[in-house]
Design a protein that fits this description.
The protein has 250 residues and is α+β, with helices and mostly antiparallel strands. Helix content is 50%, strand content 15%. Helix 2 runs parallel beside helix 6.
Length: 250
């Protein structure tokens, strides 16, 4: 382990006390191996995400500087689009860093149904364009004690994630005494992906296509913000779709 060799596994000895320790050690090894893979993926993925728009911008600017391309509104639009892509990447990395900071803001009593209604209204045009219906099953007097900024960021990330990847036709937001659930009836995720869904830089779609893959930070930010509010978030496969469960006062 000191030499970063995470392939070693301790073999069972047939002695219960030793085998329990060996099993925990092997689990730790597997976890470290997974973390190391995520770290290496970060380098390659971030490099790819930065390189693609930069290459496009440099190519366009060089061609215009040399007089090969005229400066037109269309070319300016292309450059602006690529610059916005770079800005989005930086913003995601910055948001993840801020989500991990200990100062998450003061909690307050929030009427959850009204809060979610405002969220749905904010995304009403996007939901309509995607053909998605949003349903609320939350009592009018239901109150949750969290920081409003953190809760807003959590719900906006969940909504954006659903709009971008789920291919759903319906979203359901509901709350019970100890759980707050955000569900969709979309394509869901493979069962083998569920344990890693909130890992930073983990993507269900391993392709480098931004339309389906993303950078893999959205749900990692959600987990960090949820834990900062004393909430534990888990993913449950639906039939069809996906349900994200926030345990209240976990």
């Amino acid at each position: 382990m000191e030499q970063s060799n995470y392939k070693v596994q301790l073999q069972s000895m047939g002695i219960r006390e030793f085998d329990e320790v060996f099993m925990r050690f092997n689990n730790l090894i597997n976890r470290l191996r997974h973390e190391e893979k995520l770290r290496k993926d970060l380098v390659s993925d971030t490099s790819h995400e930065l390189n693609t728009p930069l290459t496009t911008m440099i190519g366009q600017l060089t061609a215009m500087q040399e007089g090969k391309f005229p400066l037109t509104r269309e070319r300016v639009a292309i450059l602006k689009e690529q610059a916005e892509r770079l800005a989005e990447l930086v913003q995601q990395l910055d948001a993840y860093t801020k989500a991990r900071m200990p100062n998450a803001g003061e909690p307050e009593d929030i009427y959850l149904r009204q809060f979610c209604e405002e969220l749905i209204n904010h995304f009403s045009l996007d939901l309509k364009q995607k053909g998605i219906t949003a349903k609320l099953h939350i009592a009018e007097d239901y109150i949750i004690h969290v920081n409003s900024g953190a809760l807003q960021h959590i719900l906006m990330n969940l909504m954006q994630n659903t709009l971008r990847y789920s291919q759903a036709t319906e979203i359901t937001i509901e709350a019970t005494a100890h759980e707050f659930m955000f569900s969709d009836n979309g394509k869901g995720v493979p069962s083998e992906s569920l344990p890693y869904l909130f890992e930073r830089f983990y993507r269900v779609d391993k392709s480098r296509n931004r339309a389906t893959g993303g950078l893999g930070l959205g749900l990692a930010i959600v987990r960090e913000l949820a834990e900062s509010q004393g909430l534990a978030i888990t993913a449950v496969a639906g039939h069809p779709g996906l349900t994200l469960v926030l345990k209240i006062n976990a």
